[in-house]
Amino acid sequence: MDWKNLPGGGGGIEDRRGGGGVPGGGIAVGGVGGLIIALIAMFFGIDPGAILGGGDGAQTQPPSQSQPQAQGQEGAATDEDYQFMDRLLTSTNQVWGNVFQQAGRTYTPARLVLYTRGTQGGCGVASSASGPFYCPLDNKVYIDTNFFAMMDRQLGGGGDFAYSYVIAHEVGHHVQNELGIADQVERKQRSARTEAEANSYSVRLELQADCFAGVWGNRVEEQASITQADIQEAVSTAQAIGDDNLQRQQAGRVVPDSFTHGSSQQRAKWFTTGFKTGDPNKCDTFNQNYNQL
Ligand SMILES: [Zn+2]
């Protein structure tokens, strides 16, 4: 993958790295593997119930009193991390802007907050342990730049396109928000009769975000010189963060009713569907029999 061929400079990045952060926010990094993996599973993207309800401790810590760079700086940094995020955000926003325009709809670009340790956001405090997530309340993707190094260690593999998949997945949640899908899912979850039913909506939402990430990959395949090896990288990541794989690692057993993001096989399948077709209409995970997702 040659991400430097992607367009950059589209704006929307807030650089809060090196800010005051949240006390103790960084302690989990490099620490207990199982914990990190659990948190990756939980926060690898939006979990509307958990985030809006402030369900997890990592999200509800009190904010730091001193955050000198809380407002962030835009367009200041020239380091590789920043350049990478800038191009990924610009490119994903551009692709989805085009898709929306062709459908006669308006697209408001997603924004992205780069931080280290912790930062205050529209959905509460983001900490290093949160993993990347999208906050539908302020339309921002939150990423701790150390996450990718953690991904390499914990998930046994990284690479530019694996990282790109992560960001494109989060922007996929923004697209769902723009389309009103996230709201509908939240309403359905509230009226769900069982936890398994509520979880099933979450799985559909997550698999659709995977598919949307694939759509983006399709649209930049030539521009970013994406190779078969790159695609394999993303598919491996999608498999590594499948609920079955994470549960097997954490608890030694798999409980499908408790899935919130989908199995390894499902995540790989939907990313691939998006990548092969480049067609967001093929990402309709909501009108499929749940057992056949
Ligand atoms: Zn997600």
Automatic annotation (TrEMBL):
<keyword id="KW-0812">Transmembrane</keyword>
<feature type="region of interest" description="Disordered">
    <location>
        <begin position="54"/>
        <end position="77"/>
    </location>
</feature>
<keyword id="KW-0472">Membrane</keyword>
<feature type="transmembrane region" description="Helical">
    <location>
        <begin position="25"/>
        <end position="46"/>
    </location>
</feature>
<dbReference type="Pfam" id="PF04228">
    <property type="entry name" value="Zn_peptidase"/>
</dbReference>
<feature type="compositionally biased region" description="Low complexity">
    <location>
        <begin position="58"/>
        <end position="76"/>
    </location>
</feature>
<keyword id="KW-1133">Transmembrane helix</keyword>
<feature type="region of interest" description="Disordered">
    <location>
        <begin position="1"/>
        <end position="20"/>
    </location>
</feature>
<protein>
    <submittedName>
        <fullName>Metallopeptidase</fullName>
    </submittedName>
</protein>
<dbReference type="InterPro" id="IPR007343">
    <property type="entry name" value="Uncharacterised_pept_Zn_put"/>
</dbReference>
